[in-house]
Protein backbone atom coordinates (compact mmCIF):
# COMPACT_ATOMS: atom_id res chain seq x y z
CA UNK A 1 0.00 0.00 0.00
CA UNK A 2 1.54 3.21 -1.15
CA UNK A 3 0.84 5.24 1.97
CA UNK A 4 3.24 3.13 3.93
CA UNK A 5 6.14 3.47 1.56
CA UNK A 6 8.99 5.57 2.87
CA UNK A 7 11.26 7.67 0.80
CA UNK A 8 14.91 6.83 1.16
CA UNK A 9 15.57 10.19 2.74
CA UNK A 10 13.29 9.60 5.69
CA UNK A 11 14.31 6.05 6.48
CA UNK A 12 17.84 5.65 5.20
CA UNK A 13 20.28 3.10 6.56
CA UNK A 14 22.05 5.84 8.47
CA UNK A 15 19.00 6.50 10.55
CA UNK A 16 17.69 2.98 10.87
CA UNK A 17 19.25 2.49 14.29
CA UNK A 18 17.62 5.49 15.88
CA UNK A 19 14.36 5.34 13.93
CA UNK A 20 13.86 9.04 13.45
CA UNK A 21 11.04 10.35 11.38
CA UNK A 22 10.51 13.82 9.91
CA UNK A 23 8.81 16.23 12.30
CA UNK A 24 6.05 17.07 9.88
CA UNK A 25 4.11 14.86 7.51
CA UNK A 26 4.48 15.27 3.75
CA UNK A 27 1.52 16.80 1.94
CA UNK A 28 -1.49 14.58 1.51
CA UNK A 29 -2.47 13.60 -2.00
CA UNK A 30 -6.21 13.99 -1.63
CA UNK A 31 -8.13 16.98 -2.86
CA UNK A 32 -11.75 17.87 -2.54
CA UNK A 33 -13.79 15.52 -4.65
CA UNK A 34 -17.46 15.86 -5.34
CA UNK A 35 -18.95 13.07 -7.29
CA UNK A 36 -21.61 12.66 -9.89
CA UNK A 37 -25.16 12.39 -8.72
CA UNK A 38 -26.40 9.30 -10.59
CA UNK A 39 -29.64 9.73 -12.45
CA UNK A 40 -29.82 13.46 -12.13
CA UNK A 41 -27.46 14.42 -14.90
CA UNK A 42 -25.95 17.16 -12.76
CA UNK A 43 -22.48 17.16 -11.31
CA UNK A 44 -22.05 17.96 -7.63
CA UNK A 45 -18.62 19.37 -7.90
CA UNK A 46 -17.30 22.35 -6.03
CA UNK A 47 -13.87 22.29 -7.59
CA UNK A 48 -12.10 20.96 -10.64
CA UNK A 49 -11.58 17.39 -9.47
CA UNK A 50 -14.37 15.86 -11.55
CA UNK A 51 -15.00 12.23 -12.19
CA UNK A 52 -15.18 11.77 -15.97
CA UNK A 53 -16.07 8.07 -15.83
CA UNK A 54 -19.83 7.50 -15.59
CA UNK A 55 -19.26 3.86 -14.64
CA UNK A 56 -17.66 4.99 -11.43
CA UNK A 57 -20.79 6.84 -10.40
CA UNK A 58 -22.84 3.74 -9.73
CA UNK A 59 -23.02 3.02 -6.01
CA UNK A 60 -21.63 -0.38 -5.19
CA UNK A 61 -21.14 -2.54 -2.15
CA UNK A 62 -18.68 -5.30 -1.39
CA UNK A 63 -18.48 -7.35 1.76
CA UNK A 64 -16.04 -10.01 2.82
CA UNK A 65 -15.05 -11.80 6.02
CA UNK A 66 -11.30 -12.13 6.46
CA UNK A 67 -9.65 -14.46 8.94
CA UNK A 68 -6.41 -13.20 10.40
CA UNK A 69 -3.94 -15.79 11.65
CA UNK A 70 -3.28 -16.08 15.42
CA UNK A 71 -1.10 -13.30 16.79
CA UNK A 72 0.60 -13.07 20.16
CA UNK A 73 -0.76 -10.75 22.82
CA UNK A 74 0.11 -7.18 21.89
CA UNK A 75 -0.42 -4.66 19.11
CA UNK A 76 0.17 -5.66 15.50
CA UNK A 77 0.28 -3.75 12.23
CA UNK A 78 -2.15 -5.43 9.82
CA UNK A 79 -2.57 -2.81 7.09
CA UNK A 80 -0.87 -4.96 4.46
CA UNK A 81 -2.94 -8.03 5.33
CA UNK A 82 -6.18 -6.08 5.10
CA UNK A 83 -5.28 -4.26 1.89
CA UNK A 84 -4.10 -7.47 0.28
CA UNK A 85 -7.52 -9.01 0.88
CA UNK A 86 -9.47 -6.14 -0.66
CA UNK A 87 -7.00 -4.56 -3.10
CA UNK A 88 -8.75 -5.70 -6.26
CA UNK A 89 -12.14 -4.43 -5.17
CA UNK A 90 -10.73 -1.30 -3.60
CA UNK A 91 -9.21 -0.26 -6.90
CA UNK A 92 -12.68 0.09 -8.43
CA UNK A 93 -13.85 2.71 -5.96
CA UNK A 94 -13.22 6.33 -6.86
CA UNK A 95 -14.68 7.57 -3.57
CA UNK A 96 -16.14 5.68 -0.64
CA UNK A 97 -15.71 4.17 2.78
CA UNK A 98 -14.10 0.96 4.00
CA UNK A 99 -15.61 -0.42 7.18
CA UNK A 100 -13.84 -3.00 9.34
CA UNK A 101 -15.63 -4.89 12.09
CA UNK A 102 -13.81 -7.32 14.36
CA UNK A 103 -16.11 -10.18 15.39
CA UNK A 104 -14.59 -10.56 18.86
CA UNK A 105 -14.75 -9.02 22.33
CA UNK A 106 -11.22 -9.66 23.57
CA UNK A 107 -9.21 -7.92 20.84
CA UNK A 108 -9.50 -4.53 19.19
CA UNK A 109 -8.90 -2.56 16.02
CA UNK A 110 -7.33 0.88 16.04
CA UNK A 111 -5.48 3.29 13.77
CA UNK A 112 -2.03 4.31 14.93
CA UNK A 113 1.62 4.74 14.00
CA UNK A 114 2.84 2.43 11.21
CA UNK A 115 6.59 2.76 11.46
CA UNK A 116 8.23 2.17 14.82
CA UNK A 117 7.34 -1.11 16.50
CA UNK A 118 8.24 0.49 19.83
CA UNK A 119 5.01 2.46 19.60
CA UNK A 120 3.07 -0.79 19.46
CA UNK A 121 5.06 -2.24 22.35
CA UNK A 122 4.56 0.87 24.45
CA UNK A 123 0.84 0.83 23.75
CA UNK A 124 0.67 -2.74 25.02
CA UNK A 125 2.62 -1.62 28.10
CA UNK A 126 0.08 1.14 28.67
CA UNK A 127 -2.92 -1.16 28.34
CA UNK A 128 -1.44 -3.60 30.85
CA UNK A 129 -0.65 -0.79 33.24
CA UNK A 130 -4.10 0.74 33.09
CA UNK A 131 -6.18 -2.43 33.33
CA UNK A 132 -5.43 -4.51 36.44
CA UNK A 133 -4.84 -8.22 35.90
CA UNK A 134 -4.27 -11.15 38.23
CA UNK A 135 -4.87 -11.60 41.94
CA UNK A 136 -4.98 -7.91 42.79
CA UNK A 137 -7.61 -7.20 40.14
CA UNK A 138 -11.19 -6.59 41.33
CA UNK A 139 -12.95 -8.63 38.62
CA UNK A 140 -15.87 -10.96 39.19
CA UNK A 141 -15.55 -12.46 35.71
CA UNK A 142 -12.51 -14.71 36.15
CA UNK A 143 -13.58 -18.16 34.97
CA UNK A 144 -11.99 -17.79 31.57
CA UNK A 145 -8.60 -16.83 32.94
CA UNK A 146 -6.98 -13.74 34.45
CA UNK A 147 -6.41 -12.14 31.04
CA UNK A 148 -10.04 -12.43 29.90
CA UNK A 149 -11.76 -9.61 31.78
CA UNK A 150 -8.88 -7.18 31.10
CA UNK A 151 -9.18 -8.17 27.43
CA UNK A 152 -12.88 -7.22 27.35
CA UNK A 153 -12.14 -3.83 28.87
CA UNK A 154 -9.32 -3.11 26.44
CA UNK A 155 -11.61 -4.10 23.57
CA UNK A 156 -14.08 -1.37 24.52
CA UNK A 157 -11.31 1.16 25.14
CA UNK A 158 -9.95 0.90 21.60
CA UNK A 159 -13.07 -0.45 19.91
CA UNK A 160 -13.75 -3.24 17.43
CA UNK A 161 -14.74 -1.15 14.45
CA UNK A 162 -13.05 1.30 12.06
CA UNK A 163 -14.23 3.29 9.07
CA UNK A 164 -11.58 4.55 6.65
CA UNK A 165 -12.14 6.78 3.60
CA UNK A 166 -11.46 5.42 0.13
CA UNK A 167 -10.06 7.85 -2.43
CA UNK A 168 -9.00 6.98 -5.96
CA UNK A 169 -8.97 3.25 -5.29
CA UNK A 170 -6.97 3.31 -2.10
CA UNK A 171 -7.45 3.60 1.65
CA UNK A 172 -6.93 7.28 2.34
CA UNK A 173 -4.88 7.28 5.51
CA UNK A 174 -2.17 9.62 6.72
CA UNK A 175 1.46 8.94 5.95
CA UNK A 176 2.14 7.51 9.40
CA UNK A 177 -1.17 5.78 9.95
CA UNK A 178 -1.67 2.05 9.92
CA UNK A 179 -4.35 -0.41 10.96
CA UNK A 180 -3.56 -2.25 14.17
CA UNK A 181 -5.05 -5.43 15.52
CA UNK A 182 -4.53 -5.49 19.28
CA UNK A 183 -4.68 -9.03 20.66
CA UNK A 184 -5.58 -8.87 24.34
CA UNK A 185 -5.62 -12.59 25.15
CA UNK A 186 -2.57 -14.65 26.10
CA UNK A 187 -3.57 -17.58 23.90
CA UNK A 188 -3.42 -16.58 20.23
CA UNK A 189 -6.49 -17.43 18.16
CA UNK A 190 -7.55 -16.61 14.60
CA UNK A 191 -9.54 -13.39 14.44
CA UNK A 192 -12.27 -12.61 11.92
CA UNK A 193 -12.88 -9.16 10.43
CA UNK A 194 -15.93 -8.28 8.31
CA UNK A 195 -14.86 -5.77 5.69
CA UNK A 196 -17.54 -3.74 3.94
CA UNK A 197 -16.73 -1.41 1.04
CA UNK A 198 -19.24 1.14 -0.15
CA UNK A 199 -18.80 3.90 -2.67
CA UNK A 200 -18.75 4.86 -6.30
CA UNK B 1 -31.53 -11.81 17.19
CA UNK B 2 -30.08 -15.12 16.19
CA UNK B 3 -26.48 -14.37 17.04
CA UNK B 4 -27.35 -14.17 20.69
CA UNK B 5 -29.17 -17.46 20.90
CA UNK B 6 -27.34 -20.11 22.87
CA UNK B 7 -27.57 -23.80 22.31
CA UNK B 8 -28.75 -25.73 25.33
CA UNK B 9 -25.32 -27.32 25.64
CA UNK B 10 -23.55 -24.03 26.23
CA UNK B 11 -25.98 -22.54 28.70
CA UNK B 12 -27.75 -25.44 30.36
CA UNK B 13 -29.27 -25.23 33.80
CA UNK B 14 -26.34 -27.22 35.16
CA UNK B 15 -23.93 -24.50 34.24
CA UNK B 16 -26.08 -21.50 34.95
CA UNK B 17 -24.52 -20.97 38.36
CA UNK B 18 -20.96 -20.74 37.13
CA UNK B 19 -21.71 -19.13 33.78
CA UNK B 20 -19.14 -20.97 31.71
CA UNK B 21 -18.91 -20.45 28.01
CA UNK B 22 -17.14 -22.56 25.39
CA UNK B 23 -13.48 -21.63 24.99
CA UNK B 24 -13.75 -21.01 21.27
CA UNK B 25 -16.46 -19.38 19.19
CA UNK B 26 -18.49 -21.41 16.71
CA UNK B 27 -17.81 -20.71 13.03
CA UNK B 28 -19.24 -17.49 11.67
CA UNK B 29 -21.99 -17.75 9.09
CA UNK B 30 -20.86 -14.98 6.78
CA UNK B 31 -19.05 -15.56 3.53
CA UNK B 32 -17.56 -13.14 1.07
CA UNK B 33 -20.30 -11.30 -0.73
CA UNK B 34 -19.85 -9.00 -3.66
CA UNK B 35 -22.94 -7.28 -4.83
CA UNK B 36 -24.43 -6.17 -8.09
CA UNK B 37 -23.35 -2.87 -9.47
CA UNK B 38 -26.69 -1.21 -10.25
CA UNK B 39 -27.01 0.26 -13.70
CA UNK B 40 -23.85 -1.22 -15.12
CA UNK B 41 -25.12 -4.70 -15.91
CA UNK B 42 -21.90 -6.22 -14.62
CA UNK B 43 -21.59 -8.25 -11.47
CA UNK B 44 -18.83 -7.42 -9.00
CA UNK B 45 -18.47 -10.83 -7.59
CA UNK B 46 -15.24 -12.51 -6.70
CA UNK B 47 -16.84 -15.74 -5.53
CA UNK B 48 -20.04 -17.70 -5.91
CA UNK B 49 -22.18 -15.81 -3.41
CA UNK B 50 -24.19 -13.84 -5.95
CA UNK B 51 -27.29 -11.84 -5.35
CA UNK B 52 -29.95 -13.06 -7.78
CA UNK B 53 -32.57 -10.50 -6.76
CA UNK B 54 -32.21 -7.27 -8.75
CA UNK B 55 -34.54 -5.46 -6.34
CA UNK B 56 -32.02 -5.95 -3.60
CA UNK B 57 -29.41 -4.07 -5.60
CA UNK B 58 -31.04 -0.69 -5.24
CA UNK B 59 -29.30 1.37 -2.60
CA UNK B 60 -31.65 2.38 0.17
CA UNK B 61 -31.51 4.37 3.34
CA UNK B 62 -33.55 4.23 6.52
CA UNK B 63 -33.21 6.45 9.55
CA UNK B 64 -35.00 6.39 12.85
CA UNK B 65 -34.56 7.90 16.31
CA UNK B 66 -35.14 5.42 19.10
CA UNK B 67 -35.67 6.41 22.73
CA UNK B 68 -34.31 3.95 25.26
CA UNK B 69 -35.94 3.90 28.70
CA UNK B 70 -33.95 5.18 31.70
CA UNK B 71 -31.31 2.73 32.89
CA UNK B 72 -29.34 2.77 36.13
CA UNK B 73 -25.67 3.79 36.08
CA UNK B 74 -23.66 0.94 34.61
CA UNK B 75 -23.34 -1.11 31.44
CA UNK B 76 -26.43 -2.59 29.83
CA UNK B 77 -27.00 -5.03 26.98
CA UNK B 78 -29.39 -3.39 24.51
CA UNK B 79 -29.00 -5.56 21.41
CA UNK B 80 -32.55 -6.87 21.60
CA UNK B 81 -34.04 -3.42 22.07
CA UNK B 82 -32.16 -2.04 19.08
CA UNK B 83 -32.87 -5.00 16.81
CA UNK B 84 -36.55 -4.98 17.75
CA UNK B 85 -36.81 -1.37 16.59
CA UNK B 86 -35.22 -1.98 13.21
CA UNK B 87 -35.92 -5.68 12.53
CA UNK B 88 -38.46 -5.14 9.77
CA UNK B 89 -36.26 -2.74 7.83
CA UNK B 90 -33.11 -4.71 8.54
CA UNK B 91 -34.60 -7.78 6.90
CA UNK B 92 -34.70 -5.99 3.55
CA UNK B 93 -30.96 -5.37 3.39
CA UNK B 94 -28.83 -8.03 1.77
CA UNK B 95 -25.62 -6.15 2.51
CA UNK B 96 -25.04 -2.85 4.27
CA UNK B 97 -24.16 -0.96 7.42
CA UNK B 98 -26.14 -0.05 10.52
CA UNK B 99 -24.98 3.14 12.20
CA UNK B 100 -25.92 4.01 15.78
CA UNK B 101 -25.40 7.47 17.20
CA UNK B 102 -26.16 8.28 20.83
CA UNK B 103 -27.36 11.89 21.18
CA UNK B 104 -25.74 12.41 24.59
CA UNK B 105 -22.40 13.24 26.17
CA UNK B 106 -22.69 11.43 29.49
CA UNK B 107 -23.36 7.90 28.28
CA UNK B 108 -21.71 5.71 25.66
CA UNK B 109 -22.25 2.91 23.16
CA UNK B 110 -19.84 0.03 22.82
CA UNK B 111 -19.70 -3.55 21.54
CA UNK B 112 -18.75 -6.16 24.10
CA UNK B 113 -19.62 -9.53 25.67
CA UNK B 114 -23.29 -10.48 25.49
CA UNK B 115 -23.51 -13.36 27.92
CA UNK B 116 -22.13 -12.87 31.42
CA UNK B 117 -23.48 -9.84 33.25
CA UNK B 118 -20.34 -9.90 35.41
CA UNK B 119 -18.44 -8.54 32.40
CA UNK B 120 -20.71 -5.51 32.36
CA UNK B 121 -20.37 -5.05 36.12
CA UNK B 122 -16.58 -5.34 35.95
CA UNK B 123 -16.44 -2.82 33.13
CA UNK B 124 -18.39 -0.36 35.28
CA UNK B 125 -15.94 -1.08 38.10
CA UNK B 126 -13.06 -0.30 35.77
CA UNK B 127 -14.55 2.97 34.56
CA UNK B 128 -15.11 4.15 38.12
CA UNK B 129 -11.59 3.16 39.10
CA UNK B 130 -9.94 4.93 36.18
CA UNK B 131 -11.91 8.19 36.27
CA UNK B 132 -11.72 9.99 39.65
CA UNK B 133 -15.00 11.16 41.13
CA UNK B 134 -15.92 13.18 44.21
CA UNK B 135 -13.87 15.44 46.45
CA UNK B 136 -10.48 14.05 45.48
CA UNK B 137 -11.13 14.54 41.76
CA UNK B 138 -9.36 17.45 40.03
CA UNK B 139 -12.32 18.62 37.94
CA UNK B 140 -13.30 22.24 37.37
CA UNK B 141 -16.65 21.27 35.87
CA UNK B 142 -18.61 20.26 39.00
CA UNK B 143 -21.83 22.29 38.91
CA UNK B 144 -23.90 19.46 37.52
CA UNK B 145 -22.86 17.00 40.20
CA UNK B 146 -19.80 14.91 41.02
CA UNK B 147 -20.76 12.24 38.50
CA UNK B 148 -21.10 14.63 35.53
CA UNK B 149 -17.50 15.31 34.56
CA UNK B 150 -16.51 11.65 34.97
CA UNK B 151 -19.49 10.80 32.74
CA UNK B 152 -18.21 13.08 29.98
CA UNK B 153 -14.78 11.47 30.10
CA UNK B 154 -16.19 7.95 30.00
CA UNK B 155 -18.34 8.96 27.05
CA UNK B 156 -15.26 9.86 25.01
CA UNK B 157 -13.38 6.77 26.19
CA UNK B 158 -15.99 4.36 24.82
CA UNK B 159 -17.57 6.66 22.24
CA UNK B 160 -21.13 7.51 21.29
CA UNK B 161 -21.20 5.94 17.84
CA UNK B 162 -21.06 2.42 16.38
CA UNK B 163 -21.19 1.04 12.86
CA UNK B 164 -22.14 -2.62 12.45
CA UNK B 165 -22.21 -4.60 9.20
CA UNK B 166 -25.51 -5.93 7.87
CA UNK B 167 -25.43 -9.29 6.12
CA UNK B 168 -28.46 -11.16 4.81
CA UNK B 169 -30.93 -9.04 6.73
CA UNK B 170 -29.23 -9.22 10.11
CA UNK B 171 -26.62 -7.39 12.16
CA UNK B 172 -23.45 -9.33 11.48
CA UNK B 173 -21.81 -9.52 14.89
CA UNK B 174 -19.70 -12.23 16.49
CA UNK B 175 -21.31 -14.95 18.57
CA UNK B 176 -20.40 -13.27 21.84
CA UNK B 177 -20.84 -9.67 20.78
CA UNK B 178 -23.66 -7.45 21.91
CA UNK B 179 -24.47 -3.74 21.86
CA UNK B 180 -24.02 -2.04 25.22
CA UNK B 181 -25.39 1.24 26.43
CA UNK B 182 -23.22 2.49 29.26
CA UNK B 183 -25.05 4.96 31.48
CA UNK B 184 -22.52 7.12 33.28
CA UNK B 185 -24.88 9.35 35.28
CA UNK B 186 -26.37 8.49 38.66
CA UNK B 187 -29.82 9.77 37.73
CA UNK B 188 -31.35 7.58 35.00
CA UNK B 189 -32.78 9.44 32.01
CA UNK B 190 -34.18 8.32 28.66
CA UNK B 191 -31.48 8.14 26.00
CA UNK B 192 -31.97 8.73 22.30
CA UNK B 193 -30.16 6.83 19.55
CA UNK B 194 -30.30 7.79 15.86
CA UNK B 195 -30.15 4.59 13.82
CA UNK B 196 -29.24 4.86 10.15
CA UNK B 197 -29.37 1.86 7.82
CA UNK B 198 -27.74 1.96 4.43
CA UNK B 199 -27.24 -0.84 1.94
CA UNK B 200 -28.75 -2.92 -0.81
CA UNK C 1 -24.91 25.25 13.25
CA UNK C 2 -28.29 25.37 14.87
CA UNK C 3 -27.72 22.63 17.39
CA UNK C 4 -25.21 24.75 19.19
CA UNK C 5 -27.39 27.80 19.55
CA UNK C 6 -28.54 28.48 23.06
CA UNK C 7 -31.74 30.19 24.03
CA UNK C 8 -31.24 33.30 26.09
CA UNK C 9 -32.91 31.63 29.04
CA UNK C 10 -30.30 28.90 29.35
CA UNK C 11 -27.23 31.07 28.95
CA UNK C 12 -28.20 34.55 30.03
CA UNK C 13 -25.73 37.07 31.36
CA UNK C 14 -26.94 36.37 34.88
CA UNK C 15 -25.81 32.80 34.67
CA UNK C 16 -22.70 33.26 32.61
CA UNK C 17 -20.46 33.19 35.66
CA UNK C 18 -21.67 29.85 36.95
CA UNK C 19 -22.30 28.23 33.56
CA UNK C 20 -25.39 26.27 34.44
CA UNK C 21 -27.23 24.29 31.87
CA UNK C 22 -30.74 22.81 32.02
CA UNK C 23 -30.81 19.39 33.72
CA UNK C 24 -32.57 17.72 30.81
CA UNK C 25 -32.11 18.13 27.07
CA UNK C 26 -34.86 19.65 24.97
CA UNK C 27 -36.70 17.28 22.64
CA UNK C 28 -34.83 16.21 19.54
CA UNK C 29 -36.19 17.33 16.19
CA UNK C 30 -35.67 14.09 14.32
CA UNK C 31 -38.41 11.62 13.56
CA UNK C 32 -38.30 8.24 11.95
CA UNK C 33 -37.51 8.65 8.28
CA UNK C 34 -37.61 5.90 5.73
CA UNK C 35 -36.50 6.92 2.35
CA UNK C 36 -37.40 6.15 -1.20
CA UNK C 37 -35.88 3.12 -2.78
CA UNK C 38 -34.56 4.52 -6.05
CA UNK C 39 -35.52 2.62 -9.16
CA UNK C 40 -38.06 0.37 -7.53
CA UNK C 41 -40.97 2.73 -7.41
CA UNK C 42 -41.86 1.62 -3.89
CA UNK C 43 -41.53 3.75 -0.83
CA UNK C 44 -39.87 2.31 2.28
CA UNK C 45 -41.64 4.46 4.76
CA UNK C 46 -42.96 3.35 8.13
CA UNK C 47 -44.42 6.71 9.07
CA UNK C 48 -45.56 9.93 7.49
CA UNK C 49 -42.17 11.57 7.06
CA UNK C 50 -41.90 10.99 3.33
CA UNK C 51 -39.48 12.55 0.96
CA UNK C 52 -41.47 14.19 -1.83
CA UNK C 53 -38.45 15.25 -3.85
CA UNK C 54 -37.31 12.49 -6.22
CA UNK C 55 -34.00 14.29 -6.79
CA UNK C 56 -33.12 13.75 -3.18
CA UNK C 57 -33.46 10.01 -3.58
CA UNK C 58 -30.39 9.62 -5.73
CA UNK C 59 -27.45 8.36 -3.69
CA UNK C 60 -24.58 10.80 -3.76
CA UNK C 61 -21.11 11.07 -2.36
CA UNK C 62 -18.94 14.03 -1.51
CA UNK C 63 -15.41 13.97 -0.18
CA UNK C 64 -13.12 16.76 0.88
CA UNK C 65 -9.90 17.15 2.85
CA UNK C 66 -9.99 20.01 5.32
CA UNK C 67 -6.90 21.48 6.98
CA UNK C 68 -7.44 22.77 10.49
CA UNK C 69 -5.09 25.47 11.75
CA UNK C 70 -2.58 24.64 14.50
CA UNK C 71 -4.16 24.36 17.95
CA UNK C 72 -2.44 24.23 21.32
CA UNK C 73 -2.27 20.96 23.24
CA UNK C 74 -5.71 20.22 24.66
CA UNK C 75 -9.29 19.64 23.58
CA UNK C 76 -10.93 22.04 21.14
CA UNK C 77 -14.47 22.45 19.87
CA UNK C 78 -14.35 22.39 16.05
CA UNK C 79 -18.00 21.85 15.10
CA UNK C 80 -18.31 25.28 13.49
CA UNK C 81 -15.12 24.86 11.49
CA UNK C 82 -16.21 21.49 10.16
CA UNK C 83 -19.77 22.54 9.38
CA UNK C 84 -18.57 25.69 7.66
CA UNK C 85 -16.49 23.59 5.28
CA UNK C 86 -19.32 21.26 4.30
CA UNK C 87 -22.46 23.34 4.87
CA UNK C 88 -23.33 23.81 1.23
CA UNK C 89 -23.05 20.13 0.39
CA UNK C 90 -24.64 19.03 3.65
CA UNK C 91 -27.77 20.99 2.84
CA UNK C 92 -28.45 18.75 -0.16
CA UNK C 93 -28.67 15.55 1.87
CA UNK C 94 -32.06 14.59 3.21
CA UNK C 95 -30.67 11.54 5.01
CA UNK C 96 -27.14 10.20 5.23
CA UNK C 97 -23.89 9.93 7.12
CA UNK C 98 -20.95 12.30 7.54
CA UNK C 99 -17.63 10.56 8.13
CA UNK C 100 -14.60 12.36 9.56
CA UNK C 101 -11.14 10.85 9.46
CA UNK C 102 -8.16 12.55 11.05
CA UNK C 103 -4.97 11.81 9.09
CA UNK C 104 -2.71 11.79 12.17
CA UNK C 105 -1.65 9.53 15.01
CA UNK C 106 -0.95 12.07 17.74
CA UNK C 107 -4.30 13.83 17.91
CA UNK C 108 -7.87 12.57 18.09
CA UNK C 109 -11.48 13.29 17.21
CA UNK C 110 -14.30 12.77 19.65
CA UNK C 111 -17.87 13.90 20.32
CA UNK C 112 -18.45 15.59 23.66
CA UNK C 113 -19.95 18.58 25.48
CA UNK C 114 -20.20 21.76 23.40
CA UNK C 115 -20.89 24.40 26.03
CA UNK C 116 -18.56 24.60 29.01
CA UNK C 117 -14.87 24.89 28.16
CA UNK C 118 -14.10 23.47 31.60
CA UNK C 119 -15.20 20.08 30.30
CA UNK C 120 -12.54 20.27 27.63
CA UNK C 121 -9.92 21.37 30.14
CA UNK C 122 -10.86 18.60 32.55
CA UNK C 123 -10.68 16.03 29.77
CA UNK C 124 -7.15 17.17 28.98
CA UNK C 125 -6.35 16.90 32.70
CA UNK C 126 -7.66 13.35 32.69
CA UNK C 127 -5.64 12.32 29.64
CA UNK C 128 -2.45 13.68 31.17
CA UNK C 129 -3.19 11.93 34.43
CA UNK C 130 -3.88 8.57 32.86
CA UNK C 131 -0.99 8.45 30.39
CA UNK C 132 2.44 8.86 32.02
CA UNK C 133 4.81 11.37 30.46
CA UNK C 134 8.38 12.37 31.10
CA UNK C 135 11.18 10.66 33.00
CA UNK C 136 8.97 8.39 35.06
CA UNK C 137 7.16 7.06 31.98
CA UNK C 138 8.04 3.52 30.82
CA UNK C 139 8.13 4.25 27.08
CA UNK C 140 10.73 2.94 24.65
CA UNK C 141 9.59 5.32 21.90
CA UNK C 142 11.06 8.63 23.12
CA UNK C 143 13.08 10.02 20.21
CA UNK C 144 10.38 12.41 19.09
CA UNK C 145 10.00 13.98 22.50
CA UNK C 146 8.38 13.07 25.82
CA UNK C 147 4.92 14.05 24.59
CA UNK C 148 4.99 11.85 21.48
CA UNK C 149 4.33 8.38 22.85
CA UNK C 150 1.60 9.66 25.22
CA UNK C 151 0.07 11.37 22.17
CA UNK C 152 -0.09 8.07 20.25
CA UNK C 153 -1.81 6.35 23.17
CA UNK C 154 -4.35 9.13 23.60
CA UNK C 155 -5.07 8.99 19.87
CA UNK C 156 -6.12 5.35 20.14
CA UNK C 157 -8.08 5.96 23.33
CA UNK C 158 -10.37 8.54 21.72
CA UNK C 159 -9.92 7.49 18.10
CA UNK C 160 -9.28 9.35 14.85
CA UNK C 161 -12.60 8.70 13.16
CA UNK C 162 -16.24 9.73 13.67
CA UNK C 163 -19.45 9.02 11.82
CA UNK C 164 -22.37 11.39 12.39
CA UNK C 165 -25.90 11.06 10.98
CA UNK C 166 -27.21 13.64 8.53
CA UNK C 167 -30.90 14.52 8.75
CA UNK C 168 -32.65 17.17 6.69
CA UNK C 169 -29.44 18.79 5.55
CA UNK C 170 -27.75 19.05 8.93
CA UNK C 171 -25.51 17.04 11.23
CA UNK C 172 -27.93 15.32 13.57
CA UNK C 173 -26.23 15.65 16.95
CA UNK C 174 -27.67 16.08 20.42
CA UNK C 175 -28.22 19.53 21.86
CA UNK C 176 -25.06 19.40 23.94
CA UNK C 177 -22.87 17.49 21.52
CA UNK C 178 -20.00 18.99 19.59
CA UNK C 179 -17.05 17.73 17.56
CA UNK C 180 -13.75 17.97 19.41
CA UNK C 181 -10.24 17.89 18.03
CA UNK C 182 -7.89 16.83 20.80
CA UNK C 183 -4.33 17.93 20.11
CA UNK C 184 -1.95 15.70 22.05
CA UNK C 185 1.37 17.22 20.99
CA UNK C 186 3.03 20.22 22.62
CA UNK C 187 4.01 21.78 19.29
CA UNK C 188 0.89 22.86 17.39
CA UNK C 189 0.70 21.74 13.76
CA UNK C 190 -2.00 21.93 11.10
CA UNK C 191 -4.22 18.85 11.13
CA UNK C 192 -5.98 17.34 8.14
CA UNK C 193 -9.42 15.75 8.23
CA UNK C 194 -10.94 13.81 5.33
CA UNK C 195 -14.69 14.42 5.32
CA UNK C 196 -16.90 12.03 3.38
CA UNK C 197 -20.62 12.64 2.96
CA UNK C 198 -22.91 9.90 1.71
CA UNK C 199 -26.66 9.86 1.49
CA UNK C 200 -29.73 10.84 -0.46
Describe the structure.
- With 200 residues, chain A is α+β, with helices and mostly antiparallel strands.
- In chain A, 48% of the residues are buried.
- The first copy, chain A, has helices at residues 79-90, 117-130, 148-158; strands at 33-34, 60-68, 74-77, 95-102, 107-113, 161-167, 170-171, 177-183, 191-199.
- Chain A has a five-stranded antiparallel sheet, covered by helices on one side. Chain A has a three-stranded antiparallel sheet with strand order 3-8-5, sandwiched between helices.
- Chain A starts with 32 loop residues before the first strand and ends with a strand.
- The first copy, chain A, has a domain at 60-132 and 145-199: Jelly Rolls, CATH 2.60.120.
- Chain A contains three helices and nine strands.
- Chains A and B meet through strand 2, strand 4, helix 3 and strand 9 of A and strand 1, strand 4, strand 5, helix 2 and strand 6 of B.
- Strand 2 (60-68) of chain B pairs antiparallel with strand 1 of chain C.
Strand order of the largest sheet of chain A: 2-9-4-6-7
Instruction: Work out the radius of gyration of chain A.
Output: 20 Å
Q: What separation lies between the terminal Cα atoms of chain A?
A: 20 Å
Q: What is the C-level CATH assignment of the domain at 60-132 and 145-199 in chain A?
A: Mainly Beta
Name the chain pair with the biggest interface and residue counts per chain.
Answer: A-B, 43 and 56 residues
Note the run of SSEs of chain A as H and E.
EEEHEEHHEEEE
Q: How many β-strands of chain A, per DSSP?
A: 9
Could you tell me the mean pLDDT of chain A? 80
Biggest sheet descriptor of chain A: 5 strands, antiparallel
**Mass-distribution shape of chain A:** elongated
Protein name (chains A, B, C): Secondary thiamine-phosphate synthase enzyme
Biased composition (Polar residues) (chains A, B, C): 37-56
Region (Disordered) (chains A, B, C): 35-60
Amino acid sequence: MQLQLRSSSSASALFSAVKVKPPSSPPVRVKALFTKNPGSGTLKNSNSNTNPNPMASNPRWAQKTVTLPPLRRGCHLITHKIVKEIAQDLSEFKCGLAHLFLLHTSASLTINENYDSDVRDDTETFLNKIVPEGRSAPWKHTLEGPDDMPAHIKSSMFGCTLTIPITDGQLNMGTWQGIWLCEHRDAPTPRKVVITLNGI
